[in-house]
Amino acid sequence: MKNDSIVWLDTSSIFGIEMIQKYIIDLRHIYHIVEIFNDSDACVDYMTNAKENRIFFIVNEFDGQFIVPIMHDFEQLDSIFVLRSDRSNDEEWSGQYNKVKGIYNNITLIRKHLYEIQHGKNDSIGFEITSSSVSSLQIDGNKKNRQEVMFMYGQLVKEILTQLPYSTADVNHMIEFCLTRYSEDPLMIEKIIEFERDYRPQLAVQWYTKNIFPFQMVNEALRVNDLSTLYAMRVFIKDVHKQIVEISTNLRETSLSTLYRGQRMLIEEFERIKNNPGGLLSISSFWSTSVDENVAQFFTGNFDNMVAVIFVIHIDSSVRTTTFFANIEKESQLNDNEKEYLFTMGSIFRIELIEKADANDYWTVNLSLTSDNDPQLTLLTTSIRSAVKRDNESHICGLAILMMHMDEHELAAQILEEVVKRETDPLERMKMHWTLGVLYTKLKKSQQALTNYDKVVKSPALRFLSIEIISYLYHGLGELCIQLKMIDLALINMEIALSIEVLSVPNHSDEQLARYCRDIASIYEIKGYLHDALPFYRIAFEKAIKCYPSQHPLITRYALDLARIASLQGEEKYAESILSQYVPNIENSLPPNHPMQVRFHIYTGYTLLERGDFSSAHAHFQSALTIDRMHKEANYPGHFTIYWAIGTAFGAEGRLDETFDAFSTALRIQMATLPAEDPSMAITYTAIGRVFETLDNISEALLNYECAMDIYLKHMPSTDPAIIQTQQHISRLYEKLDQYHLP
């Protein structure tokens, strides 16, 4: 990101050093890099070398006539402000340069415009968009599923941040975080110390408008969803939001109907908005607007690779909305009559008409406030909100669970470890230890997970948990048992969790039933019982489509699981119908290394294998293995299923050496990670036996078939088809041996 700086050139000392020095301190409240020059060559050298800076240039009208033509086209030069002395009235030369923002009689007006630029009116904004209809997100385009999920997550992060309580310790933590962040910047350290000394919650908006700290840090974190900074700065974020709500416009008592915001946008950013008329637009940061359209137009200058945009926000006082905004004229440090209105972070608008008038150089994007009961908005947030705000769960645990959904497990665990040390309420401490158990399980830190679960089951507060939370606890223990390679114990815990949910939880959740059934199915799959796994995958999928919107990422996950096992069990047409309906464009709708891509690559590989496209099948299987290794340790039990797929592909090509290597690797992983004589090993022994039989190595083939038979007999009735088929293999080989021994 480019640094911003102010450069002021005055070679003729028209305004005098004393006057300039007087304003330097004031300007450094906006941009703390302010460079003053009285030599034009030195000024040009500085701006030429400052290629990573965005420069705002103040120059008197006499110096400007000579230096502006030289510097105007420099990319780093953003805006030019010409300061006119009282005795000058020559303005003609400046009109031909579009970066010249105007001719000013005093520095106060320039300071105002610099302030407004700094506070986001001229910068790239962070936003998320959804399409005009939920159903189209699944069918059209490649990246819409992903953008909708980020829309939901972004809303919930901000919702939880504004609800988290805070204490003096949290305020101190915020100050320490800022001091550490800017430890090499003396000017910022000075501002942080001032903030620590003078800040009060009732002055939050005033501090927001005051200078670059803490405004710049907070809005940048909101734009890029920097969860570490957002959590550290949650005290200030909550205070600003709360004050906006308190002074928020009473729509029924005002004639306010329209607000404006001028914006320069990157072309690709604007195209996202332009291509989604009727959709929802969520602004990530706090958002400044004005009642004066002329103020908005000031910030829509023409620049290369940028689009000039004016957002026109239509206010309908009859619409009940939770999008809060307020006139901050009294709180603003500018003390002008602009009547600035500040929207709180995460404000949501409906994108209406987008047009460009021939007479204007800018686009107009008409926005309207969303209603509280907007059906699309409700559908988008309900499912994920329920996932992160479980029964009686604290907001901090909800934030941790949400971070887990966003793949921020380490940060979530770090935050909870800090909070649990200060928590005195036994019930809250127990909930935090339970959440830490879940997080450490996801992080593959089994010992830390076990330690936290142990604190949960030994806590006196356990008896105060609802029966629903008890089912969550058993489920979490089941996940940990899988990690500890205690597969049978994992199945027991998962089945207890499912039984509690079905039999004891009033109005049990389809969402939880889907999750529990899927996890039980995955255990059966690990054990090699695909015929037992399939009905649980089927139930999980049926429950999921009842409780999630069609574009929800878990629908994709459940559909891929069901299709994969259905295909392996001979239900290829059913599998294809599931994928065609629920998993279109998955490869492009998720990040390329997302864990869900593993299932996509495995299923696609098998499909290509059936069509005889061996090279493409191998490419997908290798992609599955590469992605899986990014997220799981080398000997993770599930890896053997990918090696099964690789071995099957080599076998179909007749490449027996590679086939043997793949199945042997699968067997080594099974022996290292699964209980002795796990049923899934019988499948691998059988596959290896077939390789040896094809190579006419009867003794090795027979040895592997008999190993498979020994395992099957310990787990299945003698009438099971797998046992009957294996017996046929063994009998066939003994017949061959008898033939070899005939005289």
Cα distance spanning the termini: 85 Å
Report the count of strand segments.
Answer: 14
Strand order of the largest sheet: 6-8-13-14-10-7
Q: What is the beta-strand fraction?
A: 5-15%
Query: Tell me, what is the CATH class of the largest domain?
Result: Mainly Alpha
CATH topology of the largest domain: Serine Threonine Protein Phosphatase 5, Tetratricopeptide repeat
Give the structural class. alpha/beta
Helical fraction equals 55-70%
Radius of gyration: 32 Å
The major pleated sheet works out as: 6 strands, mixed
Pfam families: TPR_12
Keywords: Repeat, TPR repeat
Explained architecture:
The protein has 743 residues and is an alpha/beta fold. The chain has five domains: 3-121, Rossmann fold, CATH 3.40.50; 137-246, no CATH class; 251-379, Alpha-Beta Complex (Toxin ADP-ribosyltransferase, Chain A, domain 1), CATH 3.90.176; 422-590, Serine Threonine Protein Phosphatase 5, Tetratricopeptide repeat (Alpha Horseshoe); 609-741, Tetratricopeptide repeat domain (Serine Threonine Protein Phosphatase 5, Tetratricopeptide repeat), CATH 1.25.40. The chain contains 33 helices and 14 strands. β3, α3 (61-71) and β4 (77-83) form a beta-alpha-beta unit. α6 (144-161) crosses α15. 43% of the residues are buried. Keywords: Repeat, TPR repeat. InterPro entries: TPR-like_helical_dom_sf, TPR_rpt.
Topology:
Elements: E1 3-9, H1 17-27, E2 34-37, H2 40-49, E3 53-60, H3 61-71, E4 77-83, E5 100-104, H4 107-121, E6 127-130, H5 134-139, H6 144-161, H7 168-181, H8 186-198, H9 204-210, H10 212-224, H11 227-232, H12 234-246, E7 258-266, H13 267-274, E8 280-283, E9 287-290, H14 293-298, E10 306-314, E11 325-327, E12 340-343, E13 348-355, E14 363-369, H15 375-388, H16 395-405, H17 409-422, H18 426-442, H19 446-457, H20 467-483, H21 487-503, H22 510-526, H23 530-547, H24 553-568, H25 572-582, H26 586-589, H27 596-610, H28 614-631, H29 639-653, H30 656-673, H31 679-694, H32 698-715, H33 721-741
Parallel strand pairs: 1-2, 1-3, 3-4, 4-5, 10-14
Antiparallel strand pairs: 6-8, 7-10, 8-13, 9-12, 11-12, 13-14
Keywords: Repeat, TPR repeat
Pfam family, one: TPR_12
